[in-house]
Design a protein that fits this description.
Pfam families: OCD_Mu_crystall (PF02423). One of its GO terms (molecular function) is ornithine cyclodeaminase activity. This is Ornithine cyclodeaminase. Its EC number is 4.3.1.12. Belongs to the ornithine cyclodeaminase/mu-crystallin family. The protein has 13 helices and 14 strands. By secondary structure, the protein is an alpha/beta fold. The chain folds into three domains: about 45 residues, no CATH class; about 120 residues, ornithine cyclodeaminase, domain 1; about 160 residues, NAD(P)-binding Rossmann-like Domain (Rossmann fold), CATH 3.40.50.720. The strands form three sheets. Strands 1, 2, 3, 4, 5, 6 and 7 form a seven-stranded mixed sheet that branches. It is globular, with a radius of gyration of 24 Å. It binds nicotinamide-adenine-dinucleotide.
Length: about 350
């Protein structure tokens, strides 16, 4: 049975160039009559697919055209839709890649989503932690976004973005958090970890709030100083280093996106007004996971999802309370940035 299916598929594909219209019409007729089309007809439907192939956008194009500010509004709206239950966002998929003498261990993260009413949906592949690449002069991570047409199901574009779009949508989630949870009079911002995401957070924050002083804490003093100098030159506020971060009224935690990670002590989580990007994801891979595991919180202790605040269903900051925003990175953000990337880059 299996082998005859294979043979049919090959024959149909081989016959395609000379018998296109006839077979195509046959398939349309049979599909409207139900699922009674023959195997050859169904296979021919694939062989004669007429949707255009996806456009390929390389890394240089993606990174030279898109900016942090392009992402903020779309990601804010995506959070709003997420809280209304209007985003189809599956829990992320993870594929672990073996470690060998020369490669791995690697992680492949697959996230995606569809925001109701938009013209596209997005699936992204983020391949990370290939640390042995560095010895070969290659980055440890790479990635693509596939953006598909929600009207006909065809893949519209493949963006070779190597985490750049993820950086933009994560920086945008930071911006949305600052907008709704930092008090207007808060003028100091701190960064724990002076890496790529911290820079995206700094750029995102600049779109919604004027900080005048920043604090950066990193493991490597020289690199942290370089990071602080760059941010100071680019964003115009002074960034100094701290030997330890002082308590701050709004903590935006985006480091924990795997069940192995935790940056915020459970007691700090318990003491804060806690906001999640997506509770069902945070309890599996976010900071919340470790507070639940420590037995100091349950999911019912979470104050709100960020979209509830974006939608005005719950207030954001109401006074000088400690607020913790647990950002694990949702498929809703990926869908939003995928749509933005398509809207902007398809015109190029
Ligand atoms: N939630 C999300 O949506 C999301 C999105 C992307 C990345 N991430 C996660 O965010 C984290 C940072 O990603 P990145 O791309 O900025 O990485 P990066 O390697 O560019 O930067 C990490 C920084 O953290 C510092 N650091 C490491 N351990 C530290 C410690 N104990 N104390 C203080 N600083 C420390 C390093 O010195 C470095 O400056 C990763 O865990 C990544 O998986 C989350």
């Amino acid at each position: 049975m299996l082998s005859s299916l294979r043979i049919s598929a090959r024959r149909a594909a081989a016959a395609a160039p000379s018998a296109g219209n006839k077979l195509h019409k046959g398939v349309v007729a049979s599909s409207s009559a139900g699922s009674s089309g023959s195997i050859i007809e169904q296979t021919a439907c694939r062989a004669f697919a007429t949707v255009p192939g996806p456009r390929l956008f390389d890394y240089d194009t993606v990174t030279s055209v898109l900016k942090q500010s392009d992402a903020v509004e779309a990601v804010e709206a995506a959070f709003g839709m997420l809280a209304k239950g209007k985003v189809d966002v599956p829990i992320p998929m993870h594929i672990g890649i073996d470690e060998s003498e020369k490669a791995g261990p690697g992680d492949c993260h697959i996230k995606g989503g569809y925001i109701s009413g938009t013209s596209t949906w997005t699936v992204k592949l983020a391949n990370v932690s290939f640390y042995k690449n560095v010895e070969k002069g290659l980055p440890a991570g790479s990635g693509i976004f596939v953006v598909c047409d929600a009207t006909n199901g065809a893949p519209l574009a493949i963006f070779q973005e190597n985490r750049f779009l993820t950086d933009l949508r994560t920086g945008a989630a930071g911006a949305v958090s600052v907008k709704h949870f930092a008090a207007r009079h808060h003028k100091k911002v701190g960064f724990v970890g002076a890496g790529v995401i911290a820079a995206a957070m700094a750029r995102g924050s600049k779109c919604v709030h004027e900080f005048d002083e920043g604090f950066a804490y990193g493991l490597d003093v020289v690199k942290t100083k370089e990071w602080a100098d760059e941010i100071e030159a680019e964003l115009g506020y002074k960034v100094v280093e701290l030997d330890w971060l002082r308590p701050h009224a709004t903590i935006i935690a985006s480091g924990s996106d795997q069940p192995t990670k935790n940056e915020i002590p459970a007691e700090v989580q318990k003491a804060s007004k806690m906001v999640c990007d997506l509770v069902r994801q945070c309890e599996q891979v976010g900071e919340l996971r470790s507070a639940i595991k420590a037995g100091v919180m349950t999911r019912d202790d979470v104050y709100a999802e960020i979209g509830d605040v974006v939608n005005g269903d719950k207030p954001g900051r109401t006074g000088e309370e400690l607020i913790l925003v647990d950002l694990t990175g949702t498929g809703a953000q990926d869908a939003a940035i995928g749509q933005v990337a398509w809207d902007i880059l398809s015109k190029h």
